[in-house]
Amino acid sequence: MHILVTGGAGFIGANFVQQVVREHPGTKVTVLDALTYAGDEHSLDPVADAITFVKGDVADADTVDPLVADADAVVHFAAESHNDNSLAEPWPFVRTNIVGTYTLLEAVRRHGTRYHHISTDEVYGDLELDDPAKFTPETPYNPSSPYSATKAGSDMLVRAWVRSFGVAATISNCSNNYGPYQHVEKFIPRQITNLIDGVRPKLYGTGQNVRDWIHVDDHNAAVWQILAQGRIGETYLIGADGEVDNKTVVETLLELMGQPADAYDLVSDRPGHDLRYAIDATRLREELGWEPRYTSFRDGLAATVAWYRANEDWWRPQKDATEAKYASLGR
Ligand code: NAD
Ligand code: DAU
Predict the structure, then answer these.
(1) Residues 155-182: pLDDT tens digits?
(2) Ligand 1: nearest atom to the Cα of 181
């Protein structure tokens, strides 16, 4: 099988490509990535000889069409992915996440190519802290930020292309990922690299917001299973029952990195900050037999801390510009 992986130089995409090369030899992989500030070709260094890399834009039909024509399947990770950026400048999110998805859908429609769409649990909005409910495939869409609204829009395009044009697509909506190669703008790597630099972690608001953490390798194993065995037209929610509040995440990192539990600062909150996410992954578990391999968040965090300690060459070039952006927001 020849797969075209968009956004393969980003956090989840690069881990996906590495996993496919490692665990599914014989799969031909082409990566299409624009190498925005969030993309780094070095994230593919361990597999560079085993794949083809194309620098290009998913919203450019002339770039996309021949690549899709050559592939048996497309796995679409490419996106503008950071909520804080979407609040400061929404347009790149509309362009990449909506126009980019439209461009790929038109190409897979022309060429009859299998398509898997990577999306987020944020399309469902948020839950109250004391609500026993979790997101299911039936939960109504209710996105809060420009980022999540553009992801919701892209999901709707996929559903319409399945129903109206018979495109062979599946969708997955996953919760918060952590692991190696995540950009230092995101919560966990930001705090780890701050602590390495002797800077106190920064919690938005009161730190009570809850995220449902999953290791990136568990997300990607689920994506592979959906690609191979998922029902066409279906939506699968991916999550590993990993709900933790942000304050607890920071306290765990402080402990793992040898600092007092209260050595963090509270900073101004994100506007419209979603309170809690929680995924019910019953369909994925029961239909496809998927189970997470990372069952201890603490062990997964410890491994992630070790990775950032060992790979300063990878993250250091992004750090100053990222912190300058946060400083301009007062966070
Ligand atoms: P990321 O920001 O780390 O990587 C995005 C990649 O897409 C980068 O390599 C970037 O260069 C590339 N890209 C951006 N615009 C492009 C364009 N116009 N053309 C081609 N390439 C472009 O993002 P991530 O965290 O790896 O997220 C990947 C996907 O997974 C996204 O669709 C995101 O919505 C989804 N998702 C992320 C999470 C999470 O916790 N990070 C959870 C659920 C779903
Ligand atoms: O739920 C899936 C989503 O998870 C993905 O769709 C997004 O692409 C991904 O970025 C992530 O979104 P979040 O907004 O939840 O992730 P982020 O890492 O930005 O923040 C996680 C939580 O930590 C959130 O409640 C905000 C908070 N936070 C974040 C930063 C950067 C802090 O308290 N301090 C910080 O410095």
Answers:
(1) 999 999 999 999 999 999 999 999 999 9
(2) 3
DSSP one-letter string for 29-73? EEEEE---TT--GGGGGGGGGGSEEEE--TT-HHHHHHHHHH-SE
Nearest-ligand number for the alpha carbon of 209: 2
Return the ligand number nearest the Cα of 124. 2
Ligand 2: which of 83, 142, 178 to mutate, judged by most atoms within 8 Å of the beta carbon? 83
* Residues 189-228 pLDDT 10s: 999 999 999 999 999 999 999 999 999 999 999 999 999 9
End-to-end CA distance of the chain: 45
Return the structure tokens found at 264: 């963090």
Catalytic residues: 121-122, 147
**Secondary structure, 3-state, 203-259:** EECCCCCEEECEEHHHHHHHHHHHHHHCCCCCEEEECCCCEEEHHHHHHHHHHHCCC
Q: pTM value?
A: 0.99
Quote the ligand 2 centre to 210 CA distance (angstroms).
10
